[in-house]
Amino acid sequence: MAGFLQRRWVRIAGLIPAAIFVFLSYWTVVFVLRWSLLRTPNHVFAITDLISFIGYAVFLVFLFGSGVISLLMARFMGGFYRVLYITGLVTVLASTIHFPMTLLYSADWNSYPKEVPSAEALAGTWCNSYMVLELHPDSTYSLTLVDPDQTTDSFTPSSGAWHLERNKLHLTDLDFTWPSPWWIVTSEGRYFIRYEFPGNPDAWSGNLGLMRESDWNEI
């Protein structure tokens, strides 16, 4: 086996999986950091059902196996392939601690808070990196993209009237109405306005939605 891996054509061909392992190592670390240390207050761990959990676990097993193969290549091929010791160790470690890290740093959130701000207290600017919602005291609103030049099929800027029904925020426009109300939720002592994209209400990636502009600017 070791002799086979030392053949010239094998070592040249091995550059392709080596590059893939480096790529996987990088993104595995990004996943861990994104859902743990670098998680913003309006994001929570997004695994919500058994099917998603199993799929995510299979993906992490694949990453773990890739890290092991990376280590074997470094061991038997030597030379500049020894850099795969680093990527292999990083991938194995990161894929192993991913669930513990994300669960440890994930935020608890409440979709039915006992206390919800009044309509007057809810008025103001709410935003994230994607959109800005202006709730005016006169019960009118405007919903715009952060980047006016950005185009998307899943979002329609609008303006019209809004009203609060318990923890449900209704946005009504003569030309466009969101098919379901938005929700006032809480997490880590903050209020968030959670929205669903029209036509795809189940496409939730752990984004709790919009934060007050003052809270968002503090991130």
What would you note in describing this structure?
With 219 residues, the chain is of the alpha+beta class. It has 7 helices and 9 strands, in the order αααααβαββββββββα. The protein has helices at 2-5, 8-13, 15-34, 50-77, 83-105, 119-122, 213-217; strands at residues 109-110, 124-127, 131-135, 140-145, 158-165, 168-172, 182-187, 190-194, 211-212. Strands 1, 2, 3, 4, 5, 6, 7, 8 and 9 form a 9-stranded antiparallel sheet that branches. A hairpin with a 2-residue loop joins strand 5 and strand 6. Helix 3 (15-34) packs across helix 4 (50-77), helix 3 (15-34) runs parallel beside helix 5 and helix 4 (50-77) packs antiparallel against helix 5. The longest helix has 28 residues, at 50-77.
Summarize the structure.
With 219 residues, this protein is an alpha+beta fold.
Note the main attributes of this structure.
single chain; 219 residues; alpha+beta; nine-stranded antiparallel beta sheet; 7 helices; elongated
Largest sheet: 9 strands, antiparallel
Helix content: 40-55%
Q: What is the helix/strand order?
A: HHHHHEHEEEEEEEEH
Number of helices: 7
- Determine Rg (CA atoms, Å): 23 Å
How much strand content do the residues show? 15-25%
Principal-axis shape equals: elongated
Q: Could you tell me the number of beta strands?
A: 9
Structural class: alpha+beta
Distance between the termini: 52 Å
Mean pLDDT metric: 84
